[in-house]
Design goal:
A hairpin with a 4-residue loop joins β5 and β6. With 192 residues, this protein is α/β, with parallel strands linked by helices. The radius of gyration is 16 Å and the shape is globular.
Length: 192
Amino acid sequence: MANARFAELYERFKVKLEAVSGECYRVKTEDEAGKLIGEVLKEKGVQNVALLEGEISRKGNFTQQLKSSGIDVLCDRFREVTPDAHAGITQVSYAIAELGTLVQADEDANVDQRLCSTLVPIHVAVVRTSALLPSLAETMSTIHQLPKIPGFVGFITGPSRTSDIERVLTIGVHGPKQLIVVFVDTQGEGVA
């Protein structure tokens, strides 16, 4: 039953994200996520990436996976490296199916998280499929039930978009031009 629920939520999220020019993938394991990200970034011509390590990237050994794809991995000094990085990889806390939106929720305003997700031309967000929630209301309820309410909550819906008074849409002015989301299943979720 959980598999069907996640499959349906994933499809809803994917449709919404793709409607705003985002890319969406789902894999079974952390290793598959690292391999997929390496392939996708290599195909896009990415030569270096600012990787903010998280539980998924450590388990999937993203550093080694990306290096084997010929991509340099930058894992610290984000204030210095992100302005020139071709992509940034972060792990986000939640995803909202009804909106195709990602949620960053941290105890404090994690500057490294924001640098690796907003200052780069391509943001790759990894998230547990189990953190995929149906609605904004359920997401807010989940956040408010945490032992400690986060000091920072950020919402990401697709690549950066802005429009001037004449309604001329521009992508990537105030953030990444591309957003890639990779859902990683945990044991028992399975890929549908």
